[in-house]
Recover the amino acids of this structure.
């Protein structure tokens, strides 16, 4: 059967079980979009309204179901518009394949129409990338891209395909299965595992710090078994929410800059911190010089480059999180830490996550109510900012892959399109997008995508008419000199939703919250946008100022002026 390169590419994507391609058409990619028709493929094209939206949707898809999200865009600005999405996926180790059209080979380097050096442009924000120069190389490169994106520490891969390559004749044969297969990680050395088990048994105040690597390894069950086997509390990074049920007695919630006070107190007082699958990022460690200064630190990570990069551990193990935890499960060692757990329970009582309405609608109340009415079972996708931190605190995630947010890159505009991708990945699940009015307006055009496909998304806009997190920093550290944070001129979000044919709901008073959240959640005919007119100048606490030690944690608003923080918001 004769076929061109684009058709061979599409058939290879089929072989990898691709369900959806999120994309936006353009001249250099026409042969590939055409092949989605001529091959009669079962792959469904989800036409987004912007390439950034396509990349974030593919990201949300991947985080919700664990399979790589696939993006198809055209050359030049089309590929360039995926850079934020690639950076987001790269920082958070999300498997994604971006296929970009490119000018024909004879025109490369000649500043032809919509030509860009996409290979070098995306090199810093991908795990690997390709410029395909031979049509017959396409299937093998796709196979290799999937293997690279999903093996070891996952990440995004870009394949740049010149138009004459995709439209050229394919003369090779298509294998029935991928030519390159990934392999399960082997167990870590038994001697090291036994040494760590002994350390856990002898410690008096241990803490497990679970990172995104535990989720990526699908090791949530093994983590629960280890925490119960050794009677150790678990705190998670922002990206790892849900790796342990946050209603479990051994869960301390999230740690770090805006983590729970009791998680941070546990880190401050621990005599052993076992970090599994977290890269010890700056939002966790604060002041690296004193982080865990009284604790024995054990670090397990699949990426050897992360071991000793930020914090020097006493024991470092390069291992897949699941392989390590299962090996630890198999040891006969057990432990009891009743006194330590009771001590931490007193902190849970002393420093609960709470809020006061004082007659005003707060973000905390909104999030608490959404959590109560969904029983913590929804897949929650957030944007970036204050609402993200309050959502991390008040929406107790109960299951793995039910929390989707931009961590390392902190990409505003991520929330809505990632929720769309998650809904495609899990069509039978309740998906909730929690966004701020700032981030929402960066990708609000994807409401069209949600409306077109009648996705039952619930989109809660926590609308304080500010870039809230930046405003908070300006208030606390810059003498309240507000600059570039007032979002005067926001549209009427309910009318905006209705212009897309989407149901819109407005909430202005605390008394309206329960009934109108119910109205939104029970509506099943398509998306719902809920505009929540929340208090404008509330601040997120607890808070550890950037670059400061854990003992500098603020649980309430400070009474004295604070020093300017080290690092960004």
């Amino acid at each position: 059967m004769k076929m061109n390169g684009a058709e061979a590419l599409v058939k290879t994507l089929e072989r990898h079980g691709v369900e959806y391609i999120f994309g936006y058409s353009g001249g250099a990619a026409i042969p590939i979009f055409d092949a989605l028709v001529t091959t009669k493929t079962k792959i469904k094209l989800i036409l987004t309204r912007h390439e950034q939206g396509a990349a974030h949707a593919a990201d949300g898809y991947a985080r919700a179901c664990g399979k790589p999200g696939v993006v198809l865009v055209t050359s030049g600005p089309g590929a360039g518009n995926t850079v934020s999405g690639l950076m987001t996926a790269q920082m958070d180790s999300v498997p994604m394949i971006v296929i970009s059209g490119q000018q024909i080979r004879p025109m490369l380097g000649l500043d032809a129409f919509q030509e860009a050096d996409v290979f070098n442009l995306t090199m810093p924000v991908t795990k690997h990338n390709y410029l395909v120069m031979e049509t017959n190389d396409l299937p093998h490169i796709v196979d290799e891209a999937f293997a690279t994106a999903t093996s070891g520490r996952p990440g995004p891969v870009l394949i740049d395909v010149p138009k004459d390559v995709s439209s050229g004749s394919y003369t090779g044969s298509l294998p029935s299965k991928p030519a390159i297969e990934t392999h399960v990680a082997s167990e870590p050395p038994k001697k090291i595992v036994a040494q760590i088990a002994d350390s856990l048994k002898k410690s008096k105040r241990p803490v497990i710090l679970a990172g995104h690597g535990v989720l990526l390894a699908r090791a949530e069950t093994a983590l629960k078994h280890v925490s119960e086997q050794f009677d150790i509390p678990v705190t998670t990074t922002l990206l790892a929410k849900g790796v342990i049920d946050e209603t479990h007695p051994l869960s301390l919630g999230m740690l770090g800059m805006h983590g729970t006070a009791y998680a941070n107190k546990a880190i401050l007082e621990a005599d052993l911190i076992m970090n599994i699958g977290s890269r010890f990022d700056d939002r966790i460690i604060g002041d690296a010089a004193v982080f865990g200064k009284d604790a024995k630190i054990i670090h397990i990570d699949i990426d050897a480059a992360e071991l000793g990069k930020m914090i020097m551990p006493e024991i470092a193990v390069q291992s897949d999180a699941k392989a390590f935890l299962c090996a630890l499960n198999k040891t006969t060692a057990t432990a009891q830490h009743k006194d330590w757990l009771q001590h931490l329970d007193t902190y849970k009582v002393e420093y609960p996550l709470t809020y006061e309405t004082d007659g005003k609608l707060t973000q905390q109340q909104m999030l608490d109510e959404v959590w109560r009415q969904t029983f913590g079972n929804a897949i929650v996708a957030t944007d970036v900012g204050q609402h993200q931190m309050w959502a991390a605190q008040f929406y107790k995630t109960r299951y793995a892959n039910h929390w989707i947010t931009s961590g390392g890159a902190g990409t505003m505009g991520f929330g809505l399109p990632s929720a769309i991708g998650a809904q495609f990945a899990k069509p039978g699940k309740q998906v909730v997008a929690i966004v701020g009015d700032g981030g929402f307006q960066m990708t609000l055009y994807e409401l069209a995508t949600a409306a077109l496909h009648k996705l039952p998304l619930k989109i809660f806009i926590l609308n304080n008419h500010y870039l809230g997190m930046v405003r908070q920093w300006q208030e606390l550290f810059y003498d309240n000199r507000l600059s570039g944070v007032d979002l005067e001129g926001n549209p009427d979000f309910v009318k905006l939703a209705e212009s897309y044919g989407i149901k819109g709901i407005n909430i202005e008073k605390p008394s309206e919250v329960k009934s109108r959240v119910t109205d939104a959640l029970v509506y099943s005919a398509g998306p719902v946008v809920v505009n929540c007119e929340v208090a404008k100048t509330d601040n997120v606490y607890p808070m550890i100022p950037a670059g400061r030690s854990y003992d500098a944690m603020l649980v309430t608003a400070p009474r004295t002026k604070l020093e300017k923080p080290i690092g960004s918001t």
Notes: The two ends are 56 Å apart (CA to CA). The chain has a mean pLDDT of 95. The longest strand covers residues 96-102.
